[in-house]
Amino acid sequence: MTDLTIRRLLIDLETPPARHWNGGDAFRTAFFNALSMSFPAGEQFFIDSMRLGLAALPATERPRHEDEVRGFIGQEATHRRIHGLFNAHLERQGLANHWQARITRRLQRLQGLDPRIWLGLTAATEHFTAIMAEDLLTRPAPLAGAEPRLATMWLWHASEEAEHRSCAFDLYRALGGDERWRRRLFRLVTWHFGTDVLRQTVHNLHRDGSLWKLSTWVGGARFLLGREGLVWRLYAPWRRYLSADFHPSQQDGSAAIAWLRSHGDVAVPVAGAAG
Questions:
Q1: pLDDT at position 224 over 70
Q2: For residue 268, what are the β-bridge partners?
């Protein structure tokens, strides 16, 4: 089990961000904006999944997981709130959040299903966030030239995603979730996550007026498919989830630990998992 700390993020979220806040790059800005748009509904789904999973455990097993689940929920609730504030700026810039509506419709179809389905989907999505977090924390390119306060927001979020990367996976296993369904749900999440983030990115570029500019797609191709592009960097860690002996703790979390330790002035601990 992991001790999870709930933190306050002390950054300015009142000042509107620049339209291309991520280094002046239209594609990178639109991509990160798209991710942020998914978080309020997505994080709420993760919270609901963990609550359902904990309630489904035998009463004798719950104490082993309660503190970690409480810490997980506290971290995700903070992510939801912070990105909600950021997303409000995006809405005022004229961007429209289509991804959130798709998430909401899918969640309606999950009502009444086995909690292991909820947890399997959560664990799969948390793997995506964890491997993207590690990439964000270990190289400067994705946030090169970003507004410092917003770079801090993303690196804080990334660090906590890496920190709690095992929680949903462990609860899925504790409830007897099997390997075949774990991999099946991961493939489903891969399809939806990949297509949704690209669709929302394109919507953002269209509303931004940058969709038909050659420079937008040159930058996008470099960011996604270049020699150090996101797709190539994430392929190997993505594939590891399909291994029979996979566990999220196999991922190196040292960059997240180091960032949180060195930024205690802006990511201020409020309470531990038992708080």
A1: yes
A2: 8
Question: For 122-144, how does the pLDDT look when each residue is reduced to its tens digit (9 = 90+)?
Answer: 999 999 999 999 999 999 999 99
- The domain locations on the chain are 6-271
Looking at CATH, the fold of the domain delimited by 6-271 is given as: Ribonucleotide Reductase, subunit A (1.10.620)
Centre a 10 Å sphere on the Cβ of residue 89 and count the other Cβ atoms it contains: 17
**CB-based contacts of 167: which residues, under 8 Å, 6+ apart?**
2, 4, 50, 68, 69, 72, 126
Q: What is the spatial distance between Cα 123 and Cα 110, in angstroms, rounded to a whole number? A: 15
275, pLDDT greater than 60: no
Quote the percentage of the chain above a pLDDT of 90: 96
Q: Say yes or no to pLDDT of 272 above 50.
A: no
pLDDT computed for residue 177 by the predictor: 95
In angstroms, the Cα distances linking 63 to 68, 128, 130 are 10, 28, 26
> Which residues fall within 8 angstroms of residue 221, CB to CB, at 6 or more apart?
229
Residues 202, 233, 142: CA angle, nearest 5 degrees: 55
Which value, in Å, is the radius of gyration of the alpha carbons in the chain? 18
Burial class (CB in 10 A: 0-12, 13-18, 19+), 98: middle
